[in-house]
Amino acid sequence: MTFFLLIVSITSGLAAWFSKIAYQISGVFSVSVLIYFSLFFSYFLLAGLPLSVYSGYFLEKKYELSNQTLLKWWGEWLKKTLLSFVMGLLIFEVAYWIFEGYPAHAWWMIWAAWTACTLILGRLAPVLIFPIFYKFRPLENGPLKESILKLVETNGLPIQDVYVFNMSKTTKKANAAFCGMGKTRRVILADTLVENFPPEEIQAVVAHEMGHAKLNHIWKRVFWGTAISFLFFFAAYRFCSWLSLGLEYNGIADLAFFPILALAFFLFNLLLMPAENAYSRKHEFEADDFAYEKTKAKTACISVMERLARMNLADPQPNPVIEFLLYDHPSIPKRIARFKAHEG
User: Could you tell me the pTM of the whole model?
Assistant: First the structure.
C-alpha cells in the first residue's frame, strides 16, 4: 500500500501540487513544511482508511480476536493517528530544517537526530506513550509477583516494578514485555496473560523477555540499526541529491521531491527486511534458550507456546519462503522443537 501510494503521488503530480499549495500559502519555510506534511499525511490517511478499518476491526472481529465495539475502535484509531501526526511532523520539521540550513552536512546530522530520537523513545515510551493507550497497575503482591522479582533480581536485572495493563480492552490476545531503560525498566504483563495462563507459563514468558534484556538484544538491535542507517543515510542523501537535480527539482530540500526520498527509504527497508527478520529470529531462539536455562521448565515453555499460538491464531505451519521473508519470530513448531531438543 505504501509503495502504491508513493508511486501515485509522484506520477499523478499530487506531490507537486501539495508542494505548490504549501509554498503559496506561506513564504516561511517551516510553515510550508507543516502545510505540506499535513496534506501528505491526510492523503495517506484517507487512502489507507478502508484497509485500516477492515484489517484493524472487521478482520479481528471475524476471527473473534477483538473485544472492541466499532466506536471504541475509532477512539483508539484517533489516538494513534494524532500521535503519529505529532511525532511524524516533529521528525519532518527537523529533517527539512537540516536539509535547508545545513545541506553539506545534512546526511550525518539527520542520522544523529534519528539515533537520538530512537534512544529517547526507548527510555520514555513506557512512561509517556504506553499509558496513552492502556492503564497500568502494579501486579498484586503474591507468589506470581515474588517469583518474577526473584527471577529478574537473581539475573542482575533490577526493575522498577511488575505492571499489568488492560490489553483485554482491545483484544483477546496475550503478551508481555521487558521494557524501558535504566530507571524506567519494568516488566509489563497483559491482563489476558495473567488471567488465562498458569503461573509457571507466565514465568516462562517473563524469562524469555528477560533473556532479550540480559543478552543485550535491545542494544544489539540499536547498534545494528545505527550502523545500517549510517551507511544508508550517506548513500541515500548522495544519490537523492544527484537525482533531485537531474529531475529538475530544487535539490533534496524541495518538498515536491519528498515522495521520491520516501520511496528510496521504503525500498531500502524492503530489501533489508529478510536480513533484519533473520537477525530477529536468531534473537528469539536465544531468548527461548535463556528462558529454558533459567526456569528448567520444559513443559511450561512448550505449553505456553501452544497456548499463545491458539490464542493469537498463529499460523501453525507457515510457508517457509513467507517465514524467511516476513517473520520476525520463528514459527511455533520450530520453537517447540527447539525446547524439546533440550535435555531434561
Answer: 0.86
